[in-house]
């Protein structure tokens, strides 16, 4: 999650926002072939708007910087991916094995902006989310700041049925410690100021308990199929009430890189 600064709602309601033009990309379902590498870019495509919640929903696409790690692709095994493509196009594709020395990764994920709280939620892994946001910041399309949760207050959340895991930053030769069990936040040897994440069981409602992974830099995830994006967003906002937030994080938490 990122806290937006003076978001331009009218601009953010446009059909598409593009951080940079990209050429020579051919898309077949979820498979991509490139006749040349395009420039890295990120795209926000407007999907829908919920007036009652004042939330706008997007589908996002993120093209990474060029990756210079050779990979081998077995093209013959990909024919089933082109079942709906005209045969003459499929026949033009190379056969056999091909080694690619430079390539881009392409990520597709959901994004929600809550205008009531002026927060943007990126539903993908951390490094992709940070890169995605930094591109729009660089192009002056979005201004934002990171938000940090006060992990010392984890016991204040009434919906937690168990706090069974955590990671703690340390000094010296041992840089990280992990604790697993039951109510691990009550351990005497724990330095709560240095906790960077918790694994918990959260009572979503009277009948359902889901696993949550909560980090100090306002990331929240779950492996449960019971909790979808809107529920995850609502859950974060509930957690935020109990934990409290700050725009300042310690050196050992919340540090992230932005692209030059």
Radius of gyration: 21 Å
Fraction in helix = 10-25%
Largest sheet, strands/sense/barrel: 7 strands, antiparallel
Can you count the helices?
A: 4
Strand tally is 18
Provide the low-confidence segments as ranges.
Answer: 21-36, 251-260
- Portion of residues in beta strands equals 35-45%
**What is the arithmetic mean of pLDDT?**
82
Major sheet strand order = 2-5-6-9-10-1-11
Domain tally? 2
Look at the helices and sheets and give the structural class: mainly beta
Overall morphology: globular
Distance between the termini: 21 Å
**SSE run:** EHEEEEEEHEEEHEEEEEEEHE
What is this structure, in a nutshell?
With 260 residues, the chain is mainly beta. The chain has 4 helices and 18 strands.
Question: What key phrases describe this protein's structure?
Answer:
single chain, 260 residues, mainly beta, 2 domains, 7-stranded antiparallel sheet, 5-stranded antiparallel sheet, 4 helices, disordered C terminus
Which secondary structure elements does this structure contain, and how are they paired or packed?
Blueprint (H helix, E strand, L loop, with lengths): L1 E3 L4 H4 L3 E3 L6 E4 L2 E4 L6 E10 L4 E9 L7 E4 L12 H5 L5 E4 L5 E9 L4 E5 L2 H13 L5 E3 L1 E2 L10 E10 L6 E5 L14 E9 L5 E7 L4 E2 L7 H15 L1 E2 L14
Antiparallel strand pairs: 1-10, 1-11, 2-5, 3-4, 5-6, 6-9, 7-8, 9-10, 12-18, 13-14, 13-15, 15-16, 16-17
């Amino acid at each position: 999650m990122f806290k937006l600064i003076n978001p331009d709602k009218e601009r953010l309601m446009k059909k598409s926002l593009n951080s940079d033009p990209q050429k020579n990309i051919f898309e077949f379902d979820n498979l991509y072939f490139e006749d040349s590498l395009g420039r890295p870019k990120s795209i926000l495509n407007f999907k829908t708007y919920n007036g009652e919640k004042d939330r706008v929903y997007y589908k996002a696409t993120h093209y990474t910087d060029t990756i210079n790690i050779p990979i081998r692709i077995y093209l013959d095994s990909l024919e089933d991916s082109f079942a709906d493509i005209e045969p003459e196009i499929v026949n033009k594709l190379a056969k056999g094995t091909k080694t690619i020395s430079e390539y881009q990764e392409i990520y597709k994920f959901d994004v929600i902006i809550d205008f009531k709280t002026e927060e943007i939620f990126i539903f993908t892994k951390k490094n992709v989310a940070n890169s995605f946001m930094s591109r729009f910041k660089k192009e002056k399309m979005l201004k934002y700041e990171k938000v940090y949760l006060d992990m010392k207050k984890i016991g204040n959340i009434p919906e937690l049925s168990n706090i069974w895991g955590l990671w703690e930053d340390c000094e010296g030769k041992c840089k990280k410690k992990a604790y697993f069990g039951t109510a691990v936040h009550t351990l005497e040897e724990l330095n709560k100021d240095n906790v960077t994440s918790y694994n918990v069981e959260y009572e979503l409602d009277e009948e359902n308990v889901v696993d949550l992974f909560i980090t100090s830099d306002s990331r929240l995830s779950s492996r449960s199929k019971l909790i979808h994006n809107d529920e995850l967003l609502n859950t974060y906002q509930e957690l935020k009430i109990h934990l409290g937030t700050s725009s300042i994080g310690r050196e050992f938490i919340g540090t992230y890189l932005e692209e030059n």
